[in-house]
Amino acid sequence: MIDLYYWTTPNGHKISIFLEEAGLPYRLHTVNIGKGEQFAPEFLRIAPNNRIPALVDDEPADGGAPLSIFESGAILTYLAEKTGRFMPTDLRGRQEVSQWLFWQMGGLGPMAGQNHHFGTFAPEKIPYAIERYIKETARLYGVLDRRLESRDYVAGDYSIADMAIYPWIVPHERQKQNLADFPNIERWFTNIRARPAVQRAYALVEQIAARA
Predict the structure, then answer these.
(1) 42 in helix, strand or coil?
(2) Can you tell me whether residue 40 is helix, strand or coil?
(3) 91-195 sits in which CATH class?
(4) 69 has which bridge partners?
(5) 3-state class of 109 per DSSP?
(6) Is 68 helix (H, G, I), strand (E, B) or coil?
(7) Dihedral angle of Cα 37, 207, 174, 193, to the nearest 10 degrees
(8) Quick one: CA torsion of 42, 48, 53, 59, rounded to 10 degrees?
(9) Mutual angle of helices 10-22 and 196-211, in 10-degree steps
(10) What residues does CATH 3.40.30.10 cover in the chain?
(11) Residue 94 burial by CB count (10 A; 0-12/13-18/19+): exposed, middle or buried?
């Protein structure tokens, strides 16, 4: 059984999407970051950077003790290796997926996150910062749109790269991005949003809100 420590953020959605796509049984543990639960000592033992998501696998492939993993990209890679799904086995295919996974981790996620912060959450609205991150988000959308011009998915078949990127495109309106300006992203986004596993993963948001 897999224990997923989760909150309803883009990084949290990445892992719930994979688990739903792969049909892996998992227990969901909510970590309400609005209440500071990510700083609880028991969570820090699993995720020393006090960020969600984190995962504990009670049945790792080596047959050893339960394995805990933090960082969403590392979790996606681990799950892909564990299941043999959503990651190519050939050298070149793996590198394609890895590049776009790291592109999301090092580029789209941090820049869109700053966009969210300065545009929505910052107590002081700083025009320079807002403009900077809106423009950088738009640049990254342009990179992704060009990548998707002649392909259905980011790196060959549907993969952990798509699972990592999609949740960061969901809040495009908050990021002041119009998907109509990026027709290849819009097509890709619509197709992924229609996947039953993605819909199940996002239904967790409503379930958690109902319990709050």
Answers:
(1) helix
(2) coil
(3) mainly alpha
(4) 55
(5) helix
(6) strand
(7) 130
(8) -70
(9) 130
(10) 2-86+197-211
(11) middle
Report DSSP state, residue 175: T
Looking at residue 113, its pLDDT comes to 97
CATH 1.20.1050.10 location in the chain: 91-195
> For residue range 106-152, what is the model confidence (pLDDT) as tens digits?
999 999 999 999 999 999 999 999 999 999 999 999 999 999 999 99
- For 35-80, write each residue's pLDDT tens digit: 999 999 999 999 999 999 999 999 998 999 999 999 999 999 999 9
CATH of domain 2-86+197-211: 3.40.30.10
Summarised one tens digit per residue, pLDDT across range 14-25 is 999 999 999 999
What pLDDT, on the 0 to 100 scale, is given for residue 206?
Answer: 80
Contacts 24+ apart (CB under 8 A), 191-199: 191/152, 192/158, 192/162, 192/166, 193/166, 195/21, 197/17, 197/20, 197/21, 198/17, 198/20, 198/21, 198/166
Phi and psi torsions of 70, nearest 5°: -120, 170
- Rounded-to-integer distance, Cα 12 and Cα 15, Å: 6
Locate 194 and state its tokens.
């229609």
How confident is the model at residue 211, as a pLDDT? 65
Q: pTM here?
A: 0.95
Model confidence pLDDT, tens digit, residues 92-107? 999 999 999 999 999 9
